[in-house]
């Protein structure tokens, strides 16, 4: 028997190890459950894996839909981490805030890696299901909007698309009215004796955060001091977050440029030209500008 024949033969006739490997061996996992499996009860995999309803016959639509769903799940985890961090900062618990931000950094990396399956779409490939999306656009993602709100990119008009969905609208309204992550950081800096101006501390948190020269000076002084200080480590965790959010926006922009050039978006915007403007916005602006003065 040749080497290949031997391999094929072995594949068809399981040896004695396969009995040990399968679930019926005495030391194998349990097979017998009265109802659904405990895994299912926890993960709800049956629900999760039946939420895919492609709208075209194109085989490439499935990965577009699932990538979008996977990203929605990551947005959900990241919002959870940043809300945890904001709460911890409010309670002056910086280590808990830094731990949540660091988890979110790993999650943002995983989120950004999820661009892989969509990063090289050609216009013809995208066109094969683009029409089926109708006016649907990631612009209408409420969970992404909550991320942006937490980052200080607040805008009441972003609630308008969600008027027809009461739960989503209520969650977004709450996120709009609550202080963002950076508001909590700046309040903490003020409580620790740093000269954050009253105008920043008392700002209307339902509006977009505007950079302040005084806040820039606070970060400059902190960064010129002890690198190991808790507030510098907090600043670096926030910078990591800002960098990875910027990378998500840019990866999205490049994927969009490859898939549709300068056509208008399904959501009605100018497309790439509109996304380019969005991608230039700096997350936690003074953490970037302060670097010029250290
Ligand atoms: C390669 C495929 C994709 C293309 C061609 C594309 C295209 C676009 C375009 C043109 C916009 C601007 C709004 C509009 O007019 O529609 C947009 C916005 C957006 N897309 Fe995508 N997109 C793609 C994949 C994704 C995926 C997988 C997600 C994940 C959820 C996503 C999330 C978003 C978000 C959150 C916005 C709003 C950004 C903001 O408000 O700054 N996109 N997209």
From TrEMBL:
User: MF terms per GO, please?
Assistant: heme binding; L-tryptophan 2,3-dioxygenase activity; metal ion binding
Biased composition of type Basic and acidic residues is found at 1-12
**InterPro entries in UniProt:** Trp/Indoleamine_2_3_dOase-like (IPR037217), Trp_2_3_dOase (IPR004981)
Q: Where does heme bind?
A: 252
| Cofactor(s) needed for function | heme
Its EC number(s): 1.13.11.11
Its pathway, per UniProt, is: Amino-acid degradation; L-tryptophan degradation via kynurenine pathway; L-kynurenine from L-tryptophan: step 1/2
Residues binding substrate = 130, 266
| Keyword flag Membrane | no
- In terms of domain of life, where is this protein from? Bacteria
Q: Which GO terms describe its biological process?
A: L-tryptophan catabolic process to acetyl-CoA; L-tryptophan catabolic process to kynurenine
Its recorded reaction(s) are:
L-tryptophan + O2 = N-formyl-L-kynurenine
The note on the cofactor says:
Binds 1 heme group per subunit.
Give a single Pfam family match: Trp_dioxygenase
Q: Kindly give the Gene3D superfamilies that the UniProt entry links to this protein.
A: 1.20.58.480
Q: Which UniProt keywords apply?
A: Dioxygenase, Heme, Iron, Metal-binding, Oxidoreductase, Tryptophan catabolism
Say if the entry is tagged with keyword Lyase: no
- Subunit arrangement? Homotetramer.
Report the family membership.
Answer: Belongs to the tryptophan 2,3-dioxygenase family.
What function is annotated for this protein? Heme-dependent dioxygenase that catalyzes the oxidative cleavage of the L-tryptophan (L-Trp) pyrrole ring and converts L-tryptophan to N-formyl-L-kynurenine. Catalyzes the oxidative cleavage of the indole moiety.
The record's PANTHER family line, in alphabetical order, gives: TRYPTOPHAN 2,3-DIOXYGENASE
The molecule here is called Tryptophan 2,3-dioxygenase
Organism, by scientific name, is Streptomyces alboflavus
């Amino acid at each position: 028997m040749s080497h290949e024949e031997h391999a094929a033969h072995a594949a068809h006739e399981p040896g004695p190890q396969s009995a040990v490997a399968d679930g019926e061996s005495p030391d194998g996992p349990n097979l017998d459950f009265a109802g659904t499996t405990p895994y299912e009860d926890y993960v709800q995999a049956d629900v999760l894996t039946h939420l895919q309803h492609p709208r075209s016959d194109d085989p490439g639509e499935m990965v577009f839909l699932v990538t979008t769903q996977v990203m929605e799940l990551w947005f959900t985890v990241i919002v959870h981490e940043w809300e945890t961090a904001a709460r911890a900062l409010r309670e002056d618990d910086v280590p808990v805030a830094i731990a949540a931000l660091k988890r979110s950094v790993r999650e943002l990396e995983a989120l950004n890696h999820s661009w892989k399956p969509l990063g090289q779409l050609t216009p013809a490939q995208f066109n094969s299901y683009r029409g089926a999306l109708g006016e649907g656009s990631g612009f209408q993602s409420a969970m992404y909007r909550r991320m942006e709100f937490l980052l200080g990119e607040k805008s009441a008009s972003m609630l308008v698309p969600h008027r027809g969905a009461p739960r989503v609208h209520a969650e977004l309204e709450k996120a709009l009215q609550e202080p963002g992550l950076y508001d909590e950081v700046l309040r903490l800096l003020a409580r620790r004796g740093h000269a954050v101006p009253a105008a920043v501390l008392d700002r209307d948190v339902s509006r977009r955060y505007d950079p302040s020269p005084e806040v820039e000076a606070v970060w400059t002084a902190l960064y010129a001091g002890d690198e190991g200080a808790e507030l510098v480590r907090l600043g670096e965790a926030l910078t990591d977050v800002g960098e990875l959010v910027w990378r998500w926006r840019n990866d999205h922009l490049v994927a969009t440029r490859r898939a549709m050039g300068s056509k208008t978006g399904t959501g009605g915007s100018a497309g790439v030209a509109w996304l380019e403007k969005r991608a230039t916005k700096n997350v936690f602006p003074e953490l970037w500008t302060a670097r010029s003065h250290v």
